[in-house]
Amino acid sequence: MNPTPLVALVGNPNAGKSALFNALTGARQKVGNYPGVTVERKSGRMALADGRPVEMLDLPGTYSLEPSSPDEAVTHDVLLGRQTGERLPSALLIVVDATNLDNHLRFALQLIALGLPSVVALNMIDMAERDGLKIDADKLAAELGVPVIPTVAVRKKGIDELKAAIGMIASAGAVVTVSDPAPHQDIVELQRRARAIAVAATTEENFKRRLTHRADAVALHPLIGPVLLATIMFVMFQAVFAWSAVPADMIDAGIGELQGLVAGAMPAGFIRSLITEGLLAGVGAVVVFLPQILILFLFILLLEASGYMVRAAFIMDHLMARVGLSGRAFIPLLSSFACAIPGIMATRTIDDPKDRLTTILIAPLMTCSARLPVYAVVIGAFIPARDVGPGIGLQGLVLFSLYIAGVAGAMVVAYVLRRSITKGPPPGFMMEMPRYQMPILRDVLLGLWQRAMIFLKRAGTIIAFTTVILWLLVSYPKPPADYPLPSIDYSVAGRIANAIEPVFRPIGFNRDMALALIPAMAAREVAVSALATVYAIDAGDEAVQEKSLIERLQGRWSLPTALAFLAWFVFAPQCISTIAVVRRETNSWKWTSFMLAYLFALAYLAAGATYWAAIALGL
Amino acid sequence: MKLSATTTLDKLPIRTGGDIVGIDWAILSEKDARRLRELGVDEGVTVEKLHKGPFGIDPIACRIGRMTIALRTAQAAAIAVGPSKNT
Question: B40, A321: Cβ pair inside 8 Å?
Fold first, then answer.
């Protein structure tokens, strides 16, 4: 039997590759990793008109076949059949931006020269028309020697024609060989040929990119630009709180109901407690934050899809340069607000090794969405929900300042590192600024869906597992009947926490907090479920459904303690998965341990300083 | 605005355009030189300076051919710009 033909989607960054990939494969996508490297492998299945299945592979966007970053190296190796764990594609779908033909055709020429059966998608043809360009696809096909199909990926135009063209060239099992591109192929020579072809195929030219120019006049304005960026960031963090209240309450109520159902259906005992107090209380405490995490990701996806992210990098470049980084580092750092792992992986686009290392080391200081549950619970418990100005809630403001504290900390750390251990010449800043685009609802929803699945998978596996283990450690052994202290002090976890509590006492942490910090290493949001578990056990069986974690915290923690806990999590050493990614990306235990040590020290100092300052202020 | 004499891209006033008349590859690092080539910087290509960074002189945004790219003045200084031939 012949294997399914593998068709690789390849093209310049900003050619609309991902939108085309989504239009071709729909939601039938698989996101994985190449063995040994952290470059994402995105593939999906597509059915041709005659029903034959084809596997589509979305390769990282690159400007040429000469790789300069690890991302580009994967594209290069796959196309030459040298990537471990990947077969040589049986055909190429080359995506070019119709509005930027002279540039994108150069890479297309390089790709066609490889000798694999190819078809060119002349994407964003509608935009080219709007920009005043008329392109003759047949003429272009004649010049290039491969079929050229005009497409509008975002509106699914030309998709059927594209599928038909792929069906013509992608025959399974066909023996193909690639010819290695001549080493140091003259880029300038190719570029000139590409330009000549583009000129020949363009029948009408009256180029003007009005909308993008008008938008940039605002977004990159020396005064309005930074204000706009700050406003977007502020609205984003306000929205995380304001929009999530209703769905979060609904999830919370649902979990309460589930606990009630289980409690009603089962006899009291070990299994019932394990399910209601351990599993449901712990996992529920985390799942409640799904709406907030999705809102945050929604903003990041929109900023990326609209093309604004690069403008943000442009505005931030000078400030980043002051601490020895480049504006390019802003994008991985902003992604780190969602999760440090994709953020650290995104540093692969930074070519300067020292710039990249510094960015990796400070990425965990960006408040990731896993810390949001911790912040949200503590803020919800201790910061009154009132407005301090029109539309500005105090809770949102505190959350915003926690994010700012992380950013400020990161800048100071970068400044110090770039002048000491990661010293080097200042990195450059050179980036293409793509046109603005209306984000496509379907693509954004697909992105959100993938993020939600990753989060729920974590909640269902690592978080569920650690909460259950913790629940066991907190519940057993049971104290004798005449034990004078709360039962938790008799348990294994209580004893461990009591042993390490003296270390944390100077910074205002109590025993329960010390207890929550240990499993929080597995995943930060576990701190919340750990506290939920501890207090659920403390409260006993009947009270489980009556009091929320927020209400319990209010009675047990002082305000300085709560603030110190927040400060701890601004800097707290990250979860195990982040440590693993840092190890893999830096390829060094030395840098990984260095990062752990400095984050621990900062967290301890920040929590201590906050606690004592709050005490001194009489809070 | 149209340019009247040859200058370098870093010194070009905002909203002024011309043609690239020469590139001093020697003052660029190998990496920067390659990136610039990949972004379509070449003799004869039209260029227009569009924006400056908000907190100082760096970075700048230029239209090169049909692409808008951001770069710093240190690299822009290698690109010589002369009056446009198409007028």
Answer: no
